[in-house]
Amino acid sequence: MELAAGGFSGEQFREACAELQQPAVAGADWQLLVETSGISIYRLLDQKTGLYEYKVFGVLEDCSPTLLADVYMDLDYRKQWDQYVKELYEQECNGQTVVYWEVKYPFPMSNRDYVYLRQRRDLDVEGRKIHVVLAQSTSVPQLVERSGVIRVKQYKQSLAIESDGKKGSKVFMYYFDNPGGQIPSWLINWAAKNQSRTKQEAQNQRDLIQFSANPNTLQ
């Protein structure tokens, strides 16, 4: 779906809310990859790229929806815990707030960078307060591609959060990106799968938040 003028459409926000209530993984080739600590991670093969799309469902206990959404939007905080961030900031471009993000890749691979739109809405859906964050790659003349860094041009993410009725949060997340370059798709998918397995041993909620932020991080 193309971005609406000025950002994301109301329909895109509603779709994320709908998945939070009723996960859409039936009737397609979605595979359950990991189920642990109240979190289920599904993947779907993208036939065009040979890479996987991901959906995450579950409950994060002892983490309120508002706090989780605020942390997720806090780029300065991310720079503290994400060791793969080389550069991360927001910039006003053509009347819109755009995020620039450069990710460190291990030698001999080139770093990747992202330019994307990101919007948050706090919605009231039939009395349910739902925080929704949408992100998608874009292109602006102010942020040109850099020498030695590969621009990720296919990136999309959505996140929906509401109360679990207790002290925690019910969460839905969708993620896809294509890092491009000469990295074989099997290697990218292998890294993502092993990142998922690592989360089986997670002892706190922040590890799961980090995975949700970028499941395709190579280690």
TrEMBL record:
A Pfam family assignment: START
On whether Transport is a keyword of this UniProt record, the answer is: yes
Output the superkingdom of the source species. Eukaryota
Q: Kindly give the InterPro entries that the UniProt entry links to this protein.
A: START-like_dom_sf (IPR023393), START_lipid-bd_dom (IPR002913), START_lipid_transfer (IPR051213)
Q: Name one GO molecular function term.
A: phosphatidylcholine transporter activity
Annotated START domain ranges read 30-189
Q: Which PROSITE patterns match?
A: START
| Annotated stretches, region: Disordered | 199-219
Keywords per UniProt: Acetylation, Cytoplasm, Lipid transport, Lipid-binding, Phosphoprotein, Transport
Q: How does it assemble?
A: Interacts with ACOT13/THEM2.
This chain belongs to which protein, by name?
Answer: Phosphatidylcholine transfer protein
**Which species is the source of this protein?**
Colobus angolensis palliatus
